Amino acid sequence: MPLTDTFVKQVKHSGNPAGDKHTDGQALYLFVNAAGKYWRMSYRLHGKQRLLALGVYPAVPLAAARRLRDDARALLASGIDPMQAKRDERAARATAAESTFETVARTWLAKTAANRAASTQEKNSNWLEKNVFPSIGRLPISEIGPRDVLAALQKIEARGALESAHKIKQLCGQVFRFAVAGGLVERDVTADLRGALSAVPKAHFAAITEPAQAGALLRSIHAYTGHPYAAAALKLSPLLFARPGELRAAEWAEVDLAAAEWRIPGSKMKMGQDHIVPLAVQAVEILRGLHALTGHGRFVFPSIRTGERCMSENTVNAALRGMGYSKEVMTAHGFRAMARTILDEVLGERPDLIEHQLAHAVRDANGRAYNRTSHLPARRTMMQRWADYLDSIRL
To answer: Known PROSITE patterns for this protein (predicted)?
Structure first.
């Protein structure tokens, strides 16, 4: 006869050393001994008798015990051992408890460190430690939802650091995608935050785009008497018009002076795709001179303090300030605008070649992105014409 709530509540141990069994039906029974009341389910699987613990009364009342029994019977009907399923669930909970956001993030940082510059690695670590870990670092990553991440990001947004908030959101997304690959979560929850943060106002980097003023700037650059690394970076900035971060993080392993090419891996590029920079004769000459100074190390432009890191992000801008060019007049990033404007408006180069060389997304008629080698011979010719033009306005 099935048990009742009243019976389960009032039944007491009879004193039997082996304990008392009170059957409810369908293999569920209440086991009572001197220590307490325990729900059990007996079943056979593969010819063996097994016993499944379903909890302790009163924490698990009669109705809950019956639901647990029904769940176990459903597993058995599917050929699954409910005892093994229980062990697996317990192990999964333990893994989830150990796999906090901070633990997963630090593992991701360590495993992907080789894909980014040391300075970027340090910056990413600091961003997470200061802005994310205090809010969600201790939470199991499998239990974190979009609103948890958003709450952390909104604290950054409230400080007015809108660009940082967006970049940290991207970092969190990379951590979640790493967790997806490791089977720790089902999806990247930051995908639900599109449009949740205030837009970052577009910044316009100051740039000299008029040929006469560009010529005066180039004369100042060639007269610069600062540190040789900074001097070389200044001279190469207008010739290559790469992003400042890409230039200062350049490695000798990426530069082929014989082939006159600098091949930047996609891990360093804003668009995430490999990029080829053809080197004009003038650029190769500067790099050969620099190779005598830094070619024994990893970075083309190493830090003055240590060869383990690349040049500081402020080096070229500081040199420009020292030459008398304020941030309202010219910036390291401004060499890109200089090249784009003059190549188009003065030299009449093809806009698509310019955009390719700026490493912007350029698509064909079918909407497909061109690969890194697209129009390489034409870009090589353009880069040499550009270098020759710069010489002509400097002299």
So the answer is: CB (PS51900), TYR_RECOMBINASE (PS51898)
Residues of the chain with pLDDT under 70: 91-92, 94-97, 202-204, 362-373
350 is an active site residue: no
Strand 255-256 to strand 275-278: parallel, antiparallel, or no bridges (unpaired)? unpaired
Q: Looking at 160, 193, 226, which one is the last position of a domain?
A: 193
pLDDT 10s digits, 208-220: 989 999 999 999 9
Q: Both 306 and 336 in a single domain?
A: yes
Question: Which listed residue (243, 275, 356, 379) is catalytic?
Answer: 243
Catalytic residue of the set 235, 333, 379, 380: 333
pLDDT for position 67? 94
DSSP conformation class of 71:
H
Annotated active-site residue 147? The verdict is no
- Options 370, 372, 375, 385, the catalytic residue: 370
- 167 is known as an active-site residue: no
Our answer to whether residue 29 is catalytic in this structure is no
Final residue before a domain boundary, out of 41, 67, 93 = 93
Catalytic residue chosen out of the listed positions 69, 235, 268, 380: 268
Q: What secondary structure does DSSP assign to 315-384, as a single string?
A: HHHHHHHHTT--TTT--TTHHHHHHHHHHHHTS---HHHHHHHTT---B-TTSPBP-TTTTHHHHHHHHH
Q: Catalytic residue at 333?
A: yes
By residue range, what is the domain housing residue 329?
Answer: 211-394
Tell me the CATH number at 225: 1.10.443.10
Q: Is residue 202 part of a domain?
A: no
| Known active-site residue 389 | no
